[in-house]
């Protein structure tokens, strides 16, 4: 058997091309006959590739197609091959970034996503080079997916840095570095703005922007104009750098700074880890997946605060050492033998498809019956979309229960079209917890799953939820929640502190199922499920929590009862967050109810701990106050809105504290 790779173009110094070359080396080391075929081949890498017209199709071959931009006729060629096909997806930059910058790239990226939809019907396996890319593959309809990070030969970096560059910048300046082509998605303008503030802190500093700007001359001109307008010096646009020049810039760098808003993987992050350069990066697309728990990830682009963080890194040796040590630990996950082992497993998997049936551990003849509960109020068209996504589930042993508001729009007409659905109608709105309890009481399932009316489920959602209950110690299972476009996470692998402060987007699933731990796992309500027996054991949803932390409160009680809350990465829900009676806009939420529930949650669940009465309520209130102060500073809300939110938060905190103390006093006298 031969395993070949196909690319539209094999370029020099390009991350995708380098990955293909390293995979070729790996496949040959495994004993396979392997070549690279491309339509366009850069002269400097011509020894690694053959022209596409030399490819000889064969049904017994495996072909790996690297996809990062529209391949047009190359994609059409791959689609018609009889060979077993694997897609390696490096992501496609959203085309809007190139509007009025580069028309050719604009069209290539726009067309690329259309080609991606077509490829979903022709490949045996689709692997992303990051978890972020894998999730995009799932969104575009690929069923058999995986992750195979970029393969890098780190021994190549043991090269003497370019002498001229080293001599030119041999001084006591602090050097900030970003490596990547000059491109609007990389947001070099934000790097310049951060540098503007850092230059005020430390005049003896410079910013290296290393990367080609070919085809991006318009964007480069905008950046240069910004540098001029800010009266900045020491911003160095290097253009395309040779390998030894790139090594020199890494050798000179003190901090690697990344403000990019679209990355499929971001190889320079790994290179910075290799060179022991501390990383500060914006939390976007694949960046948090590549970094995992290392480096410094910023959620907001407060340029002055990022500049202060750079200064702290340069002056606090202990902090710098800790960051670098964390990066070194993360780099071990990308060692050659690890990734080559994963590649070998994927090849074996492709060879096994169709040859033998793979059964789930819990087997299909005894799958659990699931009740899916949707609580709705005046969202008829979104409810219909949600129900239609459930009707497409690959898992069929379930029922749908809708708890209706009572809605006054066309919800009843929508439900009349689904006679098989069980409908529970409320006479008045009593809060989400009350509605969910009605759904539980009407259910027949062993497992109760919850999804919001403004969400839709991946077709394998219920299947993967059920797989999570193989272990009898698991009491609740949930998965990631994307926005409705599938572009960014709303929730993944969340946990909450005893002060009710959530941490909700993480690469890794933390083992926070210890009832005595400082943090506890929770799952987001729109993608949650529980064993019905355990829900009754812990007392169902708390009707005092009408909105916010309702499912989190259940999760904590499940853990305190000795069961586990489990995150399943493949159990995906897409959530639109439509406006409603509790959410009128992004910053116009029921803040009083939210703050009340946070304080109440802490006092109720951790009432035996002194901190719950003094420090934790204070901490949670100030956390929210500070959060909205930053929102005001960012000019997302007005001063009037800020004070209005503050007033509601304080009122809610007082109410929550009162409710919690009253509950605990009642339980004390009751002897529980």
Describe this structure in words.
With 672 residues, this protein is α/β, with parallel strands linked by helices. Helix content is 40%, strand content 18%. The protein contains 22 helices and 29 strands. Helix 6 crosses helix 11 (303-315). Mean pLDDT is 90; it is low at 354-366.
- Estimate the mean pLDDT confidence: 90
The helix content, as a percent range, equals 25-40%
* Number of strand segments: 29
**Strand sequence of the main sheet, in spatial order?**
3-2-1-4-5-6-7
Shape: globular
- Distance separating the two termini: 68 Å
Q: What's the main sheet like?
A: 7 strands, parallel
Low-confidence stretches: 354-366
Rg (CA only): 27 Å
Q: Given the structure, what is the number of helices?
A: 22
| Class based on secondary structure composition and strand pairing | alpha/beta
- Strand content is 15-25%
Brief description of this entry?
The protein is of the alpha/beta class and 672 residues long. It has 22 helices and 29 strands. Helix 20 (591-605) packs parallel to helix 22 (639-670) and helix 21 (615-633) packs antiparallel against helix 22 (639-670).
Keywords:
672 residues; globular; 29 strands
Write the layout of secondary structure elements.
Elements: E1 3-10, H1 15-29, E2 36-41, E3 49-51, E4 62-67, H2 73-79, E5 84-89, H3 103-119, E6 125-128, H4 131-139, E7 145-147, H5 163-168, E8 174-179, H6 188-201, E9 205-210, H7 217-229, E10 235-239, H8 243-252, E11 255-258, H9 267-274, E12 279-282, H10 287-291, E13 296-298, H11 303-315, H12 317-331, H13 336-352, E14 370-376, H14 380-391, E15 398-404, H15 411-416, E16 422-425, H16 432-441, E17 447-450, E18 455-457, H17 461-467, E19 474-478, E20 481-483, E21 489-491, E22 495-497, E23 502-503, E24 519-521, E25 528-531, H18 532-538, H19 550-560, E26 564-567, E27 573-575, E28 583-585, E29 588-589, H20 591-605, H21 615-633, H22 639-670
Parallel strand pairs: 1-2, 1-4, 2-3, 4-5, 5-6, 6-7, 8-9, 8-11, 9-10, 11-12, 12-13, 14-15, 14-17, 15-16, 19-26, 20-27
Antiparallel strand pairs: 17-25, 18-27, 19-25, 20-21, 22-23, 22-24, 28-29
Helix pairs in contact: 6-11, 20-21, 20-22, 21-22
